[in-house]
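Q: My collaborator sent me two sequences in one message, no labels, and asked for predicted structures for both. Can we handle them in order? The first one she listed is below.
A: Yes, handling them in the order given. First sequence, followed by its structure tokens:
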Amino acid sequence: STQSTGQLRRAMAHSGVVAVLGGAMAVLGLVKGLRRRAGGPYFRAFKGVDLRQLTAAEFCARFNAEMESGKTVEAAREFRPRPGDVVTLTTMKTGQTWLLAMLRKLSFGRAHTGVDKTLAIHPGMFVEDSIPWLEHGLWRGKLDREQLGSFRVFKSHMDLSEVRAMLEACPDSKYITCLRQPHDRGLSFFKHMRGRFCSELPSMKDHFDDSFSADDFAVLEHQGYEQNLVDWIEIKDRPNVMVLFYEQTLAEPRKALRRLAEFVGVELDAELEENILGATNYDVMSTCGLFVNVFPGGGTYGKGRKTLLEGSSAQIDRRWAEVVEPATGARSYEQLYEQVTGESFPKFS
């Protein structure tokens, strides 16, 4: 409605400092309400659809068709970042939202002390000054706009194989990817798809649960994750490339932030460090309402193997053995972590 739209705009107008819990929760209510009324991507893709007739792969394909088109993907591949721009290129559910919030805070510096729309992605609507998503239809024709902060930040889920021309043509830009334990990534992908679906179509929650299990989504060869991982490992030593393991940020967020700040050339003093760590704490991000794909109870290691069926875990292990091990010599993700970082894999309780 016109009234709700006006409320949303007034709420967003105060985005200089949105209270971590109170104000952001109010924004969340307005955003969710408007998205349901306007029809978000899940609503448009699945309203009235019998999910029992779809496989998990067909579900994903139907959703992706609402988010992007051949023209938007082509435009994303042809995008050329400027010197100093930071482009994040990750498979879904490897920690990109966390990474983007840290990057935006580093770009803004000490003057930005809150948690607001500028730190987040808004997949259901175009939000001024939010983080641009290269292949998203809402950003078509708007990618090269100026951004707030000392450097521009971009999001993409395109594989490295799709953007090699970009990396070669723009060596003065910076590129970051995130890697995550494959079983955990698969489980998180299911929780993401279910959570976003149910937020837009709450009346179909039981229908979704009757149609799909975590294993249905977790075993998908989503974006060829294993091959994409191998491709990034092959170029990890380039000075403008950073490979960040999700578990590094999870176990030692302060150390991960300092490494990130050094990579993008930001001097990190004690005040800015505490500001960023406070704003990007997982508990804050999962409850403040602005980060629509960060859910309470996440931010963990090891749940994938514990939750997925034995056959599903074995299927993920086989992909690793067929793709990653021959290329890297690492028999497991944890071994690859140690091989790349030179550090012991973190211990999680």
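Q: And the one she listed second?
A: Here it is, processed independently of the first:
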Amino acid sequence: MAGEEDEALQPSRATYIIPFKRFPAADRHLSQAGTCIQGHHGWSTHKDTLAYAVDFRLPEGTPILASRRGVVAACADHFRLGGVDQVLRPRANFVAIQHEDGTYARYFHLKHQGVKVAVGEEVEAGDRIGLSGNTGYSSTPHLHFDVVDILPEDTAFLEFIVHDADGSSPCAAKPEFIPAIMAAFSVPLTDQEAIHAEVILADPPDARAPLNNADLVHGRAVLVERGGCSFETKTRHALAAGATCILVANHNDGPELFCMGGSKVPVPVPTALISKESGCMIKEAIQSPSCRGEVTLRNSEGYGRARRNLHTEANGDGNRLMYSTQTLSVPFTHEGLQFIPQEGRNYPPARGTRSRNARACCAVM
């Protein structure tokens, strides 16, 4: 029967449940609610790093359930819009849960204010974690589900503090903890290593040209604005100036964060993205000549756990991108049946039945 319903698999040590309950017959047949509209290696968007993702058509507001036990590692529900504009790719509301083996399950395109858990919260399989929606790069209301080895939003821990110019005392009452995402092409930090450095604003701000203040940047962290040129160009100019750490501030309102890419070879200094809002906060804090800012950048605890089973990408020279995310092929289990969801079939599956075929959407992620 497993071979008749779906691709049969050998039993897996880790089991996942379909992250929503089966819909009534009318919803399944009339609106195809619960139907897989893009599976592994899907023709639309499930390629390369998203090769083993699954999309399910769901009406907005459908309760989303944790597919496996874990701890909430990251979430966002402040975005409102959805569509097929490329600028919406990093603007999907989501929940990400880390499992005991270090892997993460990601639940994307949740509705505005549709997250029902908080970072650090423990959840069991079947617990409600959010409400489905249509935010981010999406052509129709659906849930994008995948399991990954590395979660970009849980790679970095960044602390910022402002001191008097002479370093005698802090200008701020306490450090600021800033959300940051390590670039896919960043040199890896070890779990014991951290970068401590004074931060200098790049001149020009977007580092589209060699830095005019290279003497100040040398041996320090540099804050660079996104835009104006490629990430590769920014890092090249920052490295030429002798920066020991590169922070790129996004230029889109949000907060909006994503994993910077564009290079198959790691850059030799730690590199991370922060939000526009965090970048503005740092700039404002250190513009006074009487104050200077310092950052501490290290791997997050979640990334340290994930490294145990890290799947890394290697190029021909043997260099590895230690912050590059890869989706993993995992089986679902329902009433003793283990399977990989197939396009056009409805889930959770009913024993002895088949789902109606459904046409995949033009652009689902």
